[in-house]
């Protein structure tokens, strides 16, 4: 999971993959592009995006087979999947949907229409990733205004602490390892060490724990950190 909605594009046609990545990132999504079905399957065992755009015909493992396997796994059985394919026949659409795809887009397609379908599916399946305001206990985060409040008192957070809190508030109570926090908040293309997470957790705690309030950030020894809902 990421503070931005995460989408994985599994498409072996390079030009289309680049086009999708560009347009989705322009809409504010974090995008990971993969060209092989078997590579995507390995990556999905490590972490799950908020939505999967999956081509039907892929090298390694076909999209239809990958979809079937994902639906058989507990971790990915509810992950939103939109299938991309040149197969427009009704029988093929039925086959794709019966395998577990949530939606089906036939190539060539309209990019604005695909973006609209992506947003509609995320609103249905994961409304929190598109919400303008997040709430966890007595903490509110306004994503449009970039402001944070606790018990209606505005807090002053640095940009990294803001992203860290936003990441926690997308899944209150869930324990995140330092590696998961590094990937979700800093991104996997930026090198920082585990100690960096501890430093910014300390800064976040200092910023949100004002007055006589309970510290909502729980340290789980040997596992990581979690944001508890405190009222």
UniProtKB/TrEMBL annotation:
It is found in: Cytoplasm. Residues 6-122 form the Response regulatory domain. The keyword Phosphoprotein applies. This is Phosphate regulon transcriptional regulatory protein PhoB. It holds the Pfam family Trans_reg_C. The lineage of its organism: Bacteria, Pseudomonadati, Pseudomonadota, Alphaproteobacteria, Hyphomicrobiales. The keyword NAD does not apply. This protein is a positive regulator for the phosphate regulon. Transcription of this operon is positively regulated by PhoB and PhoR when phosphate is limited. Residues 131-229 bind DNA. Transmembrane segments: none annotated. Residues 131-229 form the OmpR/PhoB-type domain. It comes from the Bacteria. Keywords: Activator, Cytoplasm, DNA-binding, Phosphate transport, Phosphoprotein, Transcription, Transcription regulation, Transport, Two-component regulatory system. InterPro entries: CheY-like_superfamily (IPR011006), OmpR/PhoB-type_DNA-bd (IPR001867), Sig_transdc_resp-reg_C-effctor (IPR016032), Sig_transdc_resp-reg_PhoB (IPR011879), Sig_transdc_resp-reg_receiver (IPR001789), WalR-like (IPR039420), WH-like_DNA-bd_sf (IPR036388). The modification 4-aspartylphosphate is found at residue 55.
